[in-house]
Design goal:
mainly alpha, 2 helices, flat
Length: 66
């Protein structure tokens, strides 16, 4: 693999982890996990699960249209 490919791979990994962290932060509405009520925790879990399903659908759609 050349350096350009390595850089692209590392950049994608960084962006993916940043997006995951942003989704988690948004799901918790900016609160730390310790401050969430049980209802808020459940809502945050549902939001994270929904984001994961959206990523899986996006991946399948990309595969379909290649």
């Amino acid at each position: 693999m050349d350096l350009n490919g390595l850089f692209n791979m590392l950049a994608k990994m960084f962006v993916r982890s940043a997006v995951d962290a942003g989704v988690d932060y948004a799901a918790r509405k900016g609160k730390p996990e310790a401050e969430l009520t049980p209802e808020e925790r459940e809502q945050a879990k549902r939001a994270r699960d929904m984001a994961q399903r959206a990523r899986e659908i996006q991946k399948a759609t990309r595969r379909l249209w290649r």
